[in-house]
Design goal:
Distance between the termini of chain A: 20 Å
Number of strands of chain B: 3
Largest sheet of chain B: 2 strands, antiparallel
Oligomer: heterodimer
Structural class of chain A: alpha+beta
Number of strands of chain A: 5
Number of helices of chain A: 4
Strand order of the largest sheet of chain A: 2-1-3-4
Strand content of chain B: 15-25%
CATH architecture of chain A: 3-Layer(aba) Sandwich
Radius of gyration of chain A: 15 Å
Strand order of the largest sheet of chain B: 2-3
Number of domains of chain B: 1
CATH architecture of chain B: 3-Layer(aba) Sandwich
Number of domains of chain A: 1
Order of helices and strands of chain A: HEHEEEHHE
Largest sheet of chain A: 4 strands, mixed
Helix content of chain A: 25-40%
Strand content of chain A: 15-25%
Largest interface: A-B, 44 and 48 residues
CATH class of chain A: Alpha Beta
Shape of chain A: globular
Helix content of chain B: 40-55%
CATH topology of chain A: Glutaredoxin
Structural class of chain B: alpha+beta
């Protein structure tokens, strides 16, 4: 299944092929869960756009359907998508892939300075809708 | 669009500061989690530990400030 029009697909493919390092997407959840089935379809489509820089695996361990990422370039980043990352979250998934590949975040000096003062773990849960 | 902006900001902060983790939750696909946190609109950001609850999009320095407060 194609999620994008030809022109957008080509642009995204070029962006993914230019990633500085490879990223692996991990899909978790029960194999017969509709969200997992749809997520696997979307993730395999994304990987097909740039198989040299992207790959994916499926893990059945967690009952909750989710997608997370890993790479050798950025080991400490922890971003998890709960649910099918479609709509605007599809763009967010692509942005997350870019960050995992080692692309530097574009934050202003003040924000970076505040973030540098954090000394303990913080979990941010963002509730969104796809539109 | 607001959701995308907030998600983008949070992910960039997590990429800068490894102590920050981010979960992006599709509330329509996980209504029980939405009910647990009494989510009435999107985007809503819950910071743990602490009780910080951000509605909508906030500027980057404000968000970093909220993250800083959340740990104290």
């Amino acid at each position: 299944m194609s999620y994008l029009q030809d022109r957008d697909e080509k642009t995204l493919s070029q962006r993914l092929m230019a990633l500085p390092s490879a990223v692996e997407l991990v899909v978790e959840g029960s194999a017969d869960h509709p969200i997992v089935i749809e997520t696997l379809d979307l993730v395999s489509y994304l990987v097909s756009l740039s198989p040299h820089t992207l790959s994916y695996v499926y893990q059945s361990g967690s009952p909750a359907p989710k997608v997370w990422l890993r790479s050798k370039a950025v080991r400490l980043l922890d971003i998890v998508f709960w649910g099918v990352p479609t709509g605007l979250e599809f763009t967010a998934l692509v942005d997350a892939i870019a960050l995992y590949s080692g692309i530097t975040p574009q934050l202003d000096v003040t924000t970076r300075s505040l973030l540098d003062q954090i000394y303990d773990s913080i979990a941010a849960s963002i509730f969104v809708s796809p539109t | 669009m607001a959701c995308a902006q907030m998600v983008h900001l949070a992910m960039e902060c997590a990429a800068w500061q490894p102590l920050v983790s981010v979960a992006i939750i599709q509330v329509d696909q996980f209504p029980e989690r939405g009910q647990k946190f009494n989510i009435l609109g999107v985007p809503t950001t819950i910071l743990e530990p602490g009780t910080q609850r951000l509605q909508g999009v906030v500027p980057a320095p404000y968000f970093a400030g909220y993250l800083l407060q959340a740990q104290t």
